Amino acid sequence: MGIVIFEDTRKAELEDFRQMLLSCAAVQRRKDDDGFKRRENTLATEDGGDALDRMVCVTSGVSYLGIAIVNHLLVNGYSVRIIVDNEEDVDKLREMEISGEMRLADSIVEVVMAKLTEVESLTEAFQGCYCVCHTCAFVDPAGLSGYTKAMADIEVNASKNVMTACKLSPSVRHCVLTSSLLACIWRDDSLDEFPPLVDHKCWSDESICMSKKLWYALGKLRAEKAAWEIAKDGHLKLVTICPGLVTGPEFYNKSPTSTIAYLKGMEEMYRLGLLATVDIKQLAKAHVSVLEQMKKTACGRYICFDRVIKRDEEIRVLACQTGLNLNASPIVSTTEDTLTPQFELSKTKLDRLLLASATPPRCCQ
User: Fold this and answer.
1) Does domain 8-30+49-359 have CATH number 3.40.50.720?
2) Rg, the chain, Cα only
3) In the chain, domain spans
4) Is 220 a catalytic residue?
5) In this structure, are residues 247 and 216 in contact, taking their beta carbons and an 8 Å threshold?
6) Which contiguous run of DSSP H or E holds residue 344?
7) Rounded Cα gap, residues 240 and 262, in angstroms
8) Residue 205 in contact with residue 188, Cβ under 8 Å?
9) Given a cut of 70, is residue 16 above it in pLDDT?
10) Residue 55: how many CA atoms within 13 Å on its side-chain side?
11) Which listed residue (160, 220, 254, 347) is catalytic?
């Protein structure tokens, strides 16, 4: 089963990518730029100096999240290798080439075609990168259903392939995997055994995800568990980020499938106090901050969100942004405007890391 990408969504992604590159070029442009670089899949050693020493590979690099991560990496002086899965995407990126627009300072932007279904292809694509950001961006082959049960298997297999390729690539030492908050929150809330605090230590229950047909949550949960299983021997350092619903400018139009899929079960998440969102820029910043701290203290899982929806008005706004119809749903109360949640989300671990990464060395204070 192939992965089908809607043309309108792809055009929006590519336009965002083009604008991102132009904004980077506007900050600083090298006089000796030679434009877009297409890297062939080869195991040959490249002498790229300091730029390649800071080379990070981003899978699904033209997705809504992928674009934001690439942008944040470039602004922070990293070189980036973007994975695309077909020649058409490579051609479209090449068409966007404007002299100098794909470089920032001493950074390099490369595009390489590789299949997430092929370990050998990924292993070659990762050659020369010290870190891989696997953003797990997929589109439902069935089209309009948001995320089918079959997608969970695709998600897991891609995660396994990426992790295996990372371990086989001699240069890769770190991997940042984008999971989901949904991999933490779906448990049997009728039981009294769970503490009220939901943090990075919590895992969703696969049986609950299956019984409620929460395929997106199931896919993210299994994909993250598979990644941890492969990384457990210590050769490859893995960190996972579990974000809430990703929002930002036109987020629904640019990422409709994942938005619809995430919001399945929205009523229960809202009632339990577990419906959280995160702005795309904040999420990209979190990815890069975690990546930078992996040589120091960053480890394990990190929950990422910037708002928990607890008011009826907030959920009405979200419904308007996503086109969801709440008229026939009991999700919005007619008597109370503020929800009293059963659980409380915590991102204390990520907040501490972000604070540490923002604090200058003592000698500079």
Assistant:
1) yes
2) 20
3) 8-30+49-359
4) yes
5) no
6) strand 344-345
7) 18
8) yes
9) no
10) 25
11) 220
